[in-house]
C-alpha cells in the first residue's frame, strides 16, 4: 500500500523543465556572441633567415596563400614586411597580421639585424599607449602589438648561432617567443632530439626567457606541460597536396617517400598549430597585454616622471603628479623665457654698440674725406687764381706788344 501511495504522490507532483538558460548564467553566452560579431585579431612576428620557410609555414598554419615575393640576400639592412588579411573559419572571423623579417642574417653587423625588430615592437606599444592616453579614444582601435614571435632556427643540427642568441635576448622581455626548428625534414630524427636539447640548454644558459604554455588552468595544464617539454617545435611547412594511398595530404614529396606535414610522427607542425591557435591564442594575447605591454607602459610612464607613491611613500594621484609636472613645466618655461629675453637684450645691446662703432668709423671716414676734398678745392682755387693772374698778365703783355708794333712806323717817317 505504501508503494502505491508513493507512486500516487509522485504522479501528483508537477515537474517543470527549464526551456533555456536564464539569469546571469547567460553572461558567457553574451560574451561569445559579442566576440563572434566583433571578430578576432592576431599579430604574429616571424623572425628568421632569408628563405628559411617563414611564409610557407604561415600559409600552412592558416591554410591560406598570402602572396609574397622572395627576398634577396643582398639587402644592406634588415627590414620588416607587414601583411594583414581577413580570414574566416566556419563563422569565426580573424584579422591576421604577419610581420616578417626581410634580409635577416645576411649582414655582418649583428646589432643592425635585431635593432629594427626591437624598434618595431616598441613602436606598436607606443602607438597603443598614445591611444590609451588620448582624451578621445577610438574604441575601434586596431591593436597592432605583436602577440607572438615565431623564431625560426636554422636546421644546422649543431647549435644556435650568436645572432639567434643576441636577437632572442634583446626581445624576450617584449614579446612571447616560440622557438621553432625550421625545415626540420632536413635533420634526421636522432639528430633532431640532440639538437632540441642543445638549443634548450643554450637558451637556459643565456638566460633567454621563451614563452611557456600556461599550466595554471587545469583543463589545459597537462597538454601544455607536455608541449613545454618538447620545445622547440621541429616544423615542416608545405601547402602542396600529395597523394598518400587514397588520401590527399599536405606534405613534401621526396624520392624516398612523403613527409606529411600534419602527421605527428613526421614533425611537430600539428602540435604548434594546436598550441598557437587552438589552446593558447588568448593567453598569448593576454600575456602581451598584462605582461609585456605593462612593462613598456611602466618604464615609459616612470621615465615621464609618473609614479604611484610620493617621496614620503604616500600614495600620490595621477592628478597631483600632473599638477606638479605642469607647475614644474610652467616654471621651466618661465625660466627659459627669462633667459631668452636676457640673451635677446644682450644681443640687441651688442648690436647697438657695433652699429654705433660702425657709424663713428663711417663719420670719421667721411670727415677725413671731406677734409681732403676741401684741401683739394682750395688747391684748385689757388691754381685757378694763379691762372687768372697769369691770363691778366698775358693780356697786359699782349696789349703792350700790340701798342709797340703800331708805334715804330710813324717814327721812321719823321726821320
Ligand atoms: P623570404 O621571405 O624570401 O625570406 O623566405 P621565407 O623565409 O618566407 O621562405 P619561404 O617560405 O619563401 O620558403 C623558401 C623555400 O624553402 C621555398 O622553396 C619553400 O618551398 C622551401 N621550404 C619552406 N618550408 C620548408 C620546409 O619545411 N622544408 C623544406 N625542405 N623546404 C621548405
What quaternary form is this? single chain
Largest sheet: 6 strands, mixed
Beginning-to-end CA distance, first to last residue: 216 Å
- Which molecules are bound besides the chains? guanosine-5'-triphosphate
Number of helices: 11
Inertia-based shape:
elongated
Structural class: alpha/beta
Integer average pLDDT: 88
InterPro entries: G_SEPTIN_dom, P-loop_NTPase, Septin
Subunit structure: Septins polymerize into heterooligomeric protein complexes that form filaments.
Keywords: Coiled coil, Cytoplasm, Cytoskeleton, GTP-binding, Nucleotide-binding
GO molecular function: GTP binding
Tell me what you see in this structure.
The chain has 415 residues and is of the alpha/beta class. It has eleven helices and nine strands. It has helices at 2-12, 27-38, 54-61, 111-133, 162-171, 189-205, 218-228, 269-279, 281-303, 318-406, 408-414, and strands spanning 40-47, 79-89, 92-102, 148-153, 177-181, 233-234, 241-244, 247-254, 257-260. It has a six-stranded mixed β-sheet, sandwiched between helices. It is elongated, with a radius of gyration of 47 Å. It starts with a helix and ends with a helix. The protein binds guanosine-5'-triphosphate. Residues 48, 50-56, 70-71, 183, 185-186, 236-237, 252 line the site of guanosine-5'-triphosphate (GTP). One of its GO terms (molecular function) is GTP binding.
Amino acid at each position: 500500500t505504501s508503494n502505491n501511495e508513493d507512486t500516487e504522490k509522485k504522479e501528483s507532483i508537477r515537474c517543470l523543465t527549464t526551456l533555456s538558460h536564464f539569469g546571469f548564467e547567460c553572461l558567457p553566452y553574451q560574451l561569445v556572441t559579442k566576440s563572434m560579431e566583433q571578430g578576432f585579431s592576431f599579430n604574429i612576428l616571424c623572425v628568421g633567415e632569408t628563405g628559411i620557410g617563414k611564409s610557407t609555414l604561415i600559409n600552412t598554419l592558416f591554410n591560406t596563400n598570402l602572396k609574397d615575393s622572395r627576398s634577396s640576400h643582398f639587402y644592406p639592412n634588415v627590414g620588416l614586411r607587414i601583411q594583414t588579411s581577413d580570414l574566416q573559419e566556419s563563422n569565426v572571423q580573424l584579422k591576421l597580421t604577419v610581420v616578417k623579417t626581410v634580409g635577416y642574417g645576411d649582414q655582418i653587423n649583428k646589432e643592425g639585424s635585431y635593432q629594427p625588430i626591437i624598434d618595431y615592437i616598441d613602436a606598436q606599444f607606443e602607438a597603443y599607449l598614445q591611444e590609451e592616453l588620448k582624451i578621445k579614444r577610438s574604441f575601434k582601435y586596431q591593436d597592432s602589438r605583436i602577440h607572438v614571435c615565431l623564431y625560426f632556427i636554422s636546421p644546422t643540427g649543431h647549435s644556435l648561432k650568436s645572432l639567434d642568441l643576441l636577437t632572442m635576448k634583446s626581445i624576450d622581455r617584449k614579446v612571447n617567443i616560440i622557438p621553432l626548428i625550421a625545415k626540420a625534414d632536413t635533420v634526421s630524427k636522432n639528430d633532431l632530439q640532440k639538437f632540441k636539447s642543445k638549443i634548450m640548454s643554450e637558451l637556459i644558459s643565456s638566460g633567454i626567457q621563451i614563452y611557456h604554455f600556461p599550466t595554471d588552468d587545469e583543463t589545459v595544464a597537462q597538454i601544455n606541460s607536455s608541449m613545454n617539454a618538447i620545445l622547440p617545435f621541429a616544423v615542416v611547412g608545405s601547402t602542396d597536396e600529395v597523394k598518400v594511398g587514397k588520401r590527399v595530404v599536405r606534405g613534401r614529396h621526396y624520392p624516398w617517400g612523403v613527409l606529411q606535414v600534419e602527421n605527428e610522427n613526421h614533425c611537430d607542425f600539428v602540435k604548434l598549430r594546436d598550441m598557437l591557435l587552438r589552446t593558447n591564442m588568448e593567453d598569448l594575447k593576454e600575456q602581451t597585454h598584462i605582461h609585456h605591454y605593462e612593462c613598456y607602459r611602466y618604464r615609459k610612464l616612470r621615465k615621464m616622471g609618473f609614479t604611484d607613491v610620493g617621496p614620503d611613500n604616500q600614495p600620490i594621484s595621477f592628478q597631483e603628479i600632473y599638477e606638479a609636472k605642469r607647475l614644474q613645466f610652467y616654471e621651466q618655461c618661465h625660466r627659459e623665457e627669462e633667459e631668452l629675453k636676457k640673451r635677446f637684450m644682450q644681443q640687441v645691446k651688442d648690436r647697438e654698440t657695433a652699429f654705433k662703432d660702425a657709424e663713428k668709423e663711417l663719420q670719421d671716414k667721411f670727415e677725413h674725406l671731406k677734409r681732403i676734398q676741401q684741401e683739394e678745392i682750395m688747391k684748385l682755387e689757388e691754381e685757378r687764381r694763379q691762372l687768372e693772374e697769369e691770363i691778366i698778365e698775358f693780356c697786359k703783355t699782349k696789349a703792350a706788344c700790340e701798342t709797340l708794333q703800331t708805334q715804330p712806323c710813324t717814327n721812321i717817317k719823321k726821320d
